[in-house]
Amino acid sequence: MLSGWGRIPQPGHEVRSEDLVALTRDAVLSRGLGRSYGDLSLPPPSQPQAANTTLAERILSFDEGTGRLRAEAGLSVFTLNRLFRPRGFVVPVSPGTQFVTLGGMVAADVHGASHHVDGCFGAHVAGLRMRVADGRILECGPEQESELFWATVGGMGLTGHILEVEFRMRTISSPWLQVEKQHMPDIDAFMEGLKASAKEWPQTKGWIDCLKRGRHLGRGVLMRARWASAGEAPVQAPPARPRPTVPFELPFSLVTPLTVRAFNSLCYHFPWRAASTDHPDSFFYPLDVVENWNRLYGPRGFTQYQCVLPAAAGTGAARRFLELLTRRGGASMLCVIKDCGPEGKGLLSFPKEGISIALDIPVTNDTQGLVDALNEAVIAEGGRVYLAKDAFTRAEHFRAMEPRLPAWTAVRRRWDPEGRIRSAQSVRLFGDTP
Amino acid sequence: MKVAFLGATKGMGRALARLMSQRGDHLFLLGRDADDLQRSARDLEVRGRAPVSSAPCDLEKPESFAPALDAAETALGGLDAVVVTAGLFATQDQLEADPALTHRLLLVDFTNTVAFCEEARRRLLARGGGTLCVFSSVAGERGRRPVVLYGAAKAGLTRYLEGLDHRFRAAGLRTVCVKPGFVRTSMTDGLKAPPFAGEPEDVARRVLAAIDAGTPVVYAPGAWASVMFVIRLLPRFVMRRVRF
After folding, report:
1. Which positions in chain B touch A61 (Cβ < 8 Å)?
2. In this structure, are residues A168 and A68 in contact, taking their beta carbons and an 8 Å threshold?
3. Is the pLDDT reported for residue A331 higher than 70?
4. pLDDT value at position A254?
């Protein structure tokens, strides 16, 4: 059995090798560290074998002058941080976990707290080496086979196997972060706070207590950060942090309305320091602190629902969404809000200008109904969901929220007429052969 | 330390080579596939910030051993250590079904590895000594059902390294025989992992400490030292029944 980070199992297994060229020869899907939540990285039922890329993790070149780095697709952000932060370089865009591979970052075209200034990871990629469906190995990038490239950036691994990734690392003034945290009493204040912070802060995000209704609807903590200057930063490097682990799957879910209420209250009333110089990992990857934290959700697992509500829908959109959510009682411990900058060039890339809301939902008998209801609200606002998190969206809902789907499908079909490269998710959403 | 390394492109060898280059050792890579060697050399260069070169060397071609070690010695301007992590692996079922593969595995893992070590040993002794670190296996500790042939080759290799240690330690040759237990690498991909399965990075840290200390025998991960201690004590009538 295999599962995504949400631990909803499906039949399947993976094979590993340092030799990605050999490994992908007959594979229908590549898979990295398995941090996508749903069925994106799971093979289709009739071809239950996925090529695991995580042993193919060599750095092939690095130019200190330009920051250009080329590596095999299985290299993780964790390793890049460990090697390059002390030298003054970081990945240009970092998602909410550092246990992601470069291949996965391209496939999901990941974004981070800096989306309003940096866009997605794909915007910083200079080239890819790929194995396409007919078996050929080729290079693509913004200037070379650009159609294939932009279909692959955010293309969920469905246009071919990503073998190598070349991108630009970013220089930093120090390996520490200057972080500010502010309490936001309600959702309107939150929207204002995000908007105001975006002008001066490269990294902004917020945590929302999404159980609160009425006048406290959408209360939470806004966090904003920038890399500390050499003068502000401590002399020593940020230490490697211990990672306690959840050693086994709990027999029941610890995430219940009661525990979430207690956790949220604690989080909101915790005396956060208004301004501090912080370890970058605690800002970028707060959940990485505990290994296998997904086991807390018990045997049924969980899903993450992440959508973007477009700026065009107005500032009321987030309020309407949260009202629906609290009415439905979608208890979520983790509810993260971010503002997104303009849509990138990836044909199926998730973010667009507006507000992104992400919530973790324990799987219950009601989850499908909850996701359906949220999706209908998102369609009405002109928004869309993030496939890297998704496990429950219906094909017709995705079609309704994604007018770019036919254009992406056309490119995918040009490179893979028989639909050989596919996943459990593409079977569910795009009607691929099971 | 100036190190000639046979097998640094994969698994435990890759992890050990990275530790060595990150702390400033000078590496020269030996292996079968020139392109693969190049890629590993670039990886080690970026991590260790020092140039790494390579030369072809194939455990199936004994005639390649001397030129490869010569190239290493010339490029490094000396030689302090030779590390061998390369080898062939196949399951007992695969080997029983394929006599040609059995012959190949015995030849590579015993005869040719010993021949390579002899070339390395001569060069190190000529320089007044050095370290010869070779990856054998816990499979060579006892005759066991799932590793009859592979275990036999590794048992031979282990004995050879033990003898080498006794004969040449006084002359300055420090032999380090590494006996990995089950480690999660591409070699063991698809096999069911037993308890105490380890990661290549943990093995690498332990082996590097053993190289620095000149420890003649090292089990990795460490728990396997106790496991194999018990297995060595089991009487034959018990061993005949156990399935591992």
Report:
1. 42, 46
2. yes
3. no
4. 87
Domains of chain B: 2-239 (3.40.50.720)
pLDDT digits (tens, 9 = 90+) for A44-58: 999 999 999 999 999
Give chain B positions within 8 Å (CB) of A16: 186, 189
Ordered by start, the domain boundaries in chain A are 13-172+404-430, 177-399
Cross-sheet strand order for the sheet of A68-72? A59-62, A68-72, A161-168, A125-131, A137-140
pLDDT reported for residue A330: 66
Neighboring chain B residues of A83 at a CB cutoff of 8 Å: 46-47
B interface mutation test: which of A14, A49, A55, A78 has the most B CBs within 10 A?
A55
Give the DSSP letter of residue A112.
Answer: -
Q: A169-195 in b/e burial notation, b at 16+ Cβ within 10 A?
A: bbebebbbbbbbbbebebbebbbebbe
CA distance A18 to chain B (A): 7
Give the chain B residue nearest A56 (alpha carbons): B10
CB atoms within 10 A of CB B19: 16
pLDDT digits (tens, 9 = 90+) for B171-217: 999 999 999 999 999 999 988 888 889 999 999 999 999 999 999 99
pLDDT tier at A328, thresholds 50, 70, 90: confident
CATH number of A177-399: 3.30.70.2520
- In the prediction, which pLDDT does B196 show? 84
Q: For residue A23, list chain B residues with Cβ-Cβ distance below 8 A.
A: none
Selected from 2.60.40.420, 3.30.465.10, 3.30.450.40, 3.90.1150.10, the CATH number assigned to the domain covering A13-172+404-430 reads 3.30.465.10
For chain A, what is the mean pLDDT?
95
Which one of A13, A14, A16, A18 makes the best mutation probe of the B interface by having the most chain B beta carbons within 10 Å?
A18
Tell me which residue in A16, A17, A58 faces B43 most closely, judged by beta carbons: A58
Q: Does the beta-carbon distance from A55 to B186 stay under 8 Å?
A: yes
Asked if the Cβ–Cβ distance from A59 to B9 is below 8 Å, we say: no
**Cα distance between residue A97 and residue A99, in whole Å:** 5
**And the tokens for A393?**
């969206």
